[in-house]
Amino acid sequence: MATLFVENLTVVDFSYLHAKRGMVGESWIVDLELSGDLDAQGMVFDFGHIKKGVKRTVDDEVDHRLLIPADSEVLTLRQRDNDQHSLEWRYPGGEIRLLAPASSLLALPGLEISKAGVTRYLIEKIRALLPDNVTDIQVRLREEATGTAPFYHYSHGLKKHDGNCQRIAHGHRSGIQIFENDRRSRYWEKLWADRWEDIYIGSRDDLEGTYYVDEVPHHRFRYDAPQGHFELVIPEDHCYLVDTDTTVERLAEHIAEQLAREAPGKQFRVRAFEGVGKGAIANAGENNPGRSQGGWLTGNSVLNL
What we know:
alpha+beta; Tetrahydropterin Synthase, Chain A; eight-stranded mixed sheet; six-stranded antiparallel sheet; 4 helices; 46% strand; globular
């Protein structure tokens, strides 16, 4: 028997419902091992097929969805007409109510969303793609190793996106790097990581109103996108509102501009990540913003890795 492996097969960015934290954005790196007898080509399985078929299946099943623990006592999930699903999720912070197309949700057996549960689900989906000579499948889900660097979990939706980012409840586990006058500042990084811990970042354009549920204020977001109609009700104190779309480019700009207002007379450079290995760069402040500083260009630019 032989074993092949693929590290960093893909990254799945999604949100899930947690009994205490509410809606949590997450990013998991996916590693894969396949074991079995060698085929006529001397392979367990063709790497090209892994990249095309297995990666696509993992992305289609989990990426940019809201994962729901189907057996939780605090969940009410209903199927409606026109492929719409509605749910209610009760947790200490309030209630989360969602109306969205079925394709944007994934209900998994169990009382909570866990790596073990998602791993079992993916193994079954992957197994259907593989030839008989492959007898063992190992899937490893892991967070990006960031050491002691700050990070935050956020959820959002991009109604103008022509892909799955338009889904109103998907998210990321994201790092952030902030430079104050060319020097990295863990103080500001920790401040924003705390500010956006388990947050839903919403656009004011999508905010339909604010209502009370059991005397707790909740924001209601709603929009129509190519995949269908989306609505989300979520406690106000678990939201952060911005005046723009919630793309990573806009979020990096927002953080940089807020920093410049909170600390006038200083220049800031923000590298905001959207999950793993990708993000955007923005600069703001009064320290010669038109010149290059410390070997990097000022102005706003997208970081493509």
